[in-house]
Specification:
Blueprint (H helix, E strand, L loop, with lengths): L3 E6 L8 E6 H77 L24 H38 L9 E4 L2 E4 L6 E4 L2 E4 L5 E3 L4 E9 L3 E9 L2 E11 L6 E2 L4 E5 L9 E8 L2 E3 L6
Antiparallel strand pairs: 1-2, 3-6, 4-5, 6-13, 7-12, 8-9, 8-11, 9-10, 10-12, 10-13, 13-14
The protein binds zinc ion.
Length: about 290
């Protein structure tokens, strides 16, 4: 049997009292409808809230996207400048190589064609990344190439400092390189150096960087200095009055090594100056 309630409405101004019959089923139905309404309302609220969040996120992403585009454009510009720097470096290096001579004009490390104008129009990160990788490779190769140029320059510099240059003393030429009559026997004899007349005590200087290999007194050359310069070059300074160096000493071009004298087989104060290349005397006048 269904339970039922009676709801009474009693107004206070003498009007008719009203009565409402309420069944248990009606209450259940009303509660069910109310629950459904609450659920639907809750769903709508949650959905609306989520929509708001999505909207905010979308706006944020739009801003981020625009910022990233600007950053990409900025990066692409910076990247383009780097590429131009590499091209300028390649140009400068090519000029140094040209000045080093034909052997040095083609870099061993860099394949022909790399180091020219590169692409500078990246429109997305993948393209930019690829161009960055290419540039990194180009820079690595450029570095190897520059190390090669540095070695070439070092070699050239060492050879230049090892090659005799200039007069070893202030004086005048009294005898040349070549066949001449021996001042002692009158017989034709090879003169393997230059004789430079000068007053006793005049400074004699090294004509290239090197190491003193001989500083001694000999019957022929008297007080003599021999310097080894590397690259096959040796210089000999004979008939000195005084020696300032000892064997094993390192000397630089222009360092004082001795003073002009008249020691050994000599007919007057002078310096006998000899240049040998791989043990063979050559005309020192080429190096004055
Ligand atoms: Zn001589």
């Amino acid at each position: 049997m269904a339970r039922r309630f009676t709801l009474m409405y009693i107004p206070d101004s003498g009007k008719r009292t009203r009565r409402y019959l309420v069944t248990h089923r009606l209450i259940i139905s009303a509660l069910a409808v109310a629950s459904v309404c609450v659920l639907v309302l809750g769903y709508i609220c949650v959905d609306y809230y989520r929509l708001q969040l999505d909207q905010q996120q979308f706006t944020r992403l739009l801003i981020e996207n625009s910022e990233q585009r600007q950053q990409l454009s900025h990066l692409t510009r910076s990247f383009g400048e780097l590429q131009r720097d590499v091209v300028v470096m390649a140009g400068a290096e090519a000029r140094v190589r040209e000045s080093l001579g034909p052997d040095a004009s083609v870099p061993k490390a860099v394949p022909v064609g790399i180091g020219g104008a590169l692409e500078t129009s990246a429109t997305d990160m993948t393209a930019l990344q690829k161009q960055i990788n290419d540039l990194r490779l180009a820079i690595d190769l450029r570095r190897e190439s520059q190390e090669e140029v540095r070695d070439l320059l070092n070699d050239k510099h060492s050879l230049a400092s090892a090659t005799p240059e200039g007069w070893p003393t202030k004086g005048w030429l009294t005898s040349y390189f070549g066949m001449r009559e021996s001042p002692y026997s009158g017989e034709p004899k090879m003169h393997e150096g230059l004789d430079i007349g000068a007053n006793i005590g005049t400074s004699v200087t090294a004509t290239a960087d090197g190491v003193v290999v001989k500083a001694t007194t000999e019957p022929g050359f008297g007080k003599v200095v021999m310097i080894d310069h590397g690259y096959g070059y040796r210089t000999i300074f004979g008939h000195n009055s005084k020696l300032m160096v000892t064997p094993g000493m390192r000397v630089k071009r222009g360092d004082k090594i001795s003073e002009v004298g008249n020691t050994g087989r000599s007919t007057g104060p002078h310096l006998h100056y000899e240049v040998r290349l791989n043990g063979v005397p050559i005309d020192p006048r080429k190096f004055l």
